[in-house]
């Protein structure tokens, strides 16, 4: 009897393990969160392999891969009869194919991916390009309203990008007045340089702006900060000021 009981336990464990990997009509509830975690981890891995291009969805095949992978993973998270192993394999194959197509798109952009199309040039609508891009006048007007453009007469050039986004260049008379036109001094628009992050001084950043610890310590004391460890973030901003957050 004891041997039979042990044999039944082993058979049950094997069946549960096989069901976990390859699917079964019924699975214990604890299997579903584990399968979901594993599939999610492989989705993250696939996204890492596909890099930033997949996140931006710059081409049609990127969009198809994103939609396909998500739907595939969702089915295997909730359907007990679906195979976890096949799901992982398909996710990795999707990622590999997408990486290959993205590489080919870089090498041969006109062959694999879509390209930018001019919809309006010199203020004139190009009907052929609108038809080629499958964009109706209502579609175009909607995109223009998002950019706070309500009149065709304001537009010099409009281009639809491979992502489907429409970029617009206005005619000179409809452009906003610039600081140069108003003879105002230019503003420095450089990005902030992180000097301290979570209590740790970024020495490379200090060298980048040509300063040292004495200068940074002086700036901290001007803000009433004594210890560097008390600073969560200190950044050298484009106008020369030092932003400090404790």
Automatic annotation (TrEMBL):
It is found in: Cell membrane. Residues 114-236 form the YetF C-terminal domain. It is a multi-pass membrane protein. Pfam families: DUF421. Coiled coil: none annotated. The chain crosses the membrane at residues 27-46, 58-78, 84-104. It comes from the Bacteria. GO terms for cellular component: plasma membrane. InterPro entries: DUF421, UPF0702_alpha/beta_dom_sf. Keywords: Cell membrane, Membrane, Transmembrane, Transmembrane helix. Belongs to the UPF0702 family. This is YetF C-terminal domain-containing protein. It comes from Ethanoligenens harbinense (strain DSM 18485 / JCM 12961 / CGMCC 1.5033 / YUAN-3).
